[in-house]
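Hey forum,

I'm writing up a methods section and want to include a predicted complex as supplementary material. The small molecule is nicotinamide-adenine-dinucleotide. I've pasted the protein sequence and the SMILES. Can someone with a working setup run it? I'll credit the forum in the acknowledgements.
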Amino acid sequence: HKLADYGDQRLRTNARVSGWTDVGPAGRGQPQAGRKEAPVGSGLIGQSWAMLFASGGFKVKLYDIEPQQVTNALEKIRKEMKFLEQSGSLKGSLSAEEQGSLISGCLTIQAAAEGAMHIQECVPENLELKKKIFAQLDQIIDDKVVLSSSTSCLLPSSLFAGLVHTKQCIVAHPVNPPYHVPLVELVPHPETAPATVDRTYALMRKIGQSPVRVMKEIDGFALNRLQYAVISEAWRLVE
Ligand SMILES: NC(=O)c1ccc[n+]([C@@H]2O[C@H](COP(=O)([O-])OP(=O)(O)OC[C@H]3O[C@@H](n4cnc5c(N)ncnc54)[C@H](O)[C@@H]3O)[C@@H](O)[C@H]2O)c1
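Reply by user p_vandermeer:
Happy to help. Structure tokens for the complex are below, copy them as they are.
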């Protein structure tokens, strides 16, 4: 709670300084007029981000290199939302049907990026593949979009090396399953603009996640390092 409060205080200060007011004032779960978020890669993590963004009332454009994967993802998401609604665990204040109608699929990365305010890369953990995706997005986007990676451990300085829009790039590392575990660590590139961190922080809060700011990139980020220390200790206890 202390960390979250600290984050909110910084956010208010930075928002005042930069005049930034990008995530609208509507309550959580209300439709966010004109805002669109785009997960790139519709596997496990891409689907979870899509559901979380929709729970916050955001329009979502889901993209995958495999068109069938998008179709399957949309079907799975709608079924999952219905199930969560019936069991009383659906996030946000919109119904499963309303949230489902906010999510659609597309066949090209250009269509995903068009009009998006936040693009969340969710392709497999492969540096060259992710770099290729960010290089493509770098050529398409303007200077208002946040480019975010779901990477579990690739460093921002490797992922975003040589991009024109590095200031708009960040890692937002979720915890599996992201829909049920709210922690997200935000890891900046050394050149990431404070406004990019603030916008991502605010978006995460808006969709009900608990973002933590990691002040600089570090091998394994913070979560993996803490998690692996606990796992190693658990093994030692078993031994
Ligand atoms: N699964 C986890 O527990 C977990 C937790 C935190 C972070 N992550 C990270 O999230 C990212 C995604 O993981 P995942 O588990 O969802 O993987 P996944 O294999 O379930 O999904 C990846 C999707 O990306 C698609 N894809 C491949 N190449 C593509 C391209 N060029 N353009 C668009 N789409 C493409 C694939 O078709 C697939 O649908 C990874 O970086 C992973 O490290 C995963």
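Some notes you might quote in the supplement: Confidence is low (pLDDT under 50) at residues 1-21. The radius of gyration is 17 Å.
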